[in-house]
Amino acid sequence: MYQHLLDALPYSRPFLFVDHIDEISDQHITGRYTYRTDETFYEGHFKNNPVTPGVILIETMAQIGGVLLGFHLLGSAMHQYQPLFTHIENAEFLGTVLPNTTVIVTAQKQYFRRNVLKVAAEMTNTNGTPLCNCTISCQFVERKT
User: Fold this and answer.
1) Residue 129, phi then psi, degrees to nearest 5
2) Count of domains observed in the chain
3) Whether the Cβ atoms of residue 63 and residue 55 lie closer than 8 Å to each other
4) SS (H, E, C) the chain
5) CB 69 within 8 A of CB 118
6) Which value, in Å, is the radius of gyration of the alpha carbons in the chain?
7) H or E element: which one contains 70?
8) Distance (Å, rounded) from C-alpha 84 to C-alpha 69?
9) Which CATH number covers residue 50?
10) Active site includes 28?
11) Residues 4, 20, 28, 45: which is the catalytic one?
């Protein structure tokens, strides 16, 4: 149902952190990602005790909450724009994310004006346990061809 949005993402493995969009509206999005055991960042973070880095958790929330919701709001014009993250604030890490963990990201739109989207994003595990949250701003600039 939302495959056109997933296909528009400007990322690929190993830097794609979206598996599925559960729901989307003009006000919010919910999506998920499973951190696979073969993710490259687990090789050195940490030795013999892999943990998902906080920056990757933020990136996952940004890809789902910022880029995908922004593309939805841009509609058919989405292919004309490149997403750029402009601001992350109040990041809070509440739990550890291990390999083979599926996370659910929910983001609520705070505003979308002049092609800047600001969302409040939250990540939980499949049991609903909070893992992290933050506020993310993403600007959509015209693509250079």
Assistant:
1) -75, 125
2) 1
3) no
4) CCHHHHHHCCCCCCCCCCCEEEEECCCEEEEEEECCCCCHHHHCCCCCCCCCCHHHHHHHHHHHHHHHHHHHHHHHHHHHEEEEEEEEEEEEECCCCCCCCEEEEEEEEEEEECCEEEEEEEEEECCCCEEEEEEEEEEEEECCC
5) no
6) 15
7) helix 69-74
8) 13
9) 3.10.129.10
10) no
11) 45
Domain that residue 79 falls in: 3-142
Q: Please write the tens of the pLDDT for every residue from 71-114.
A: 999 999 999 999 999 999 999 999 999 999 999 999 999 999 99
Residues 57, 132 contacting (CB under 8 angstroms): yes
Q: Do the Cβ atoms of 55 and 39 come closer than 8 Å?
A: no
Write the pLDDT tens digit of every residue in 112-126.
Answer: 999 999 999 999 999
Place of tokens 């969302």: 119
The pTM of this model reads 0.96
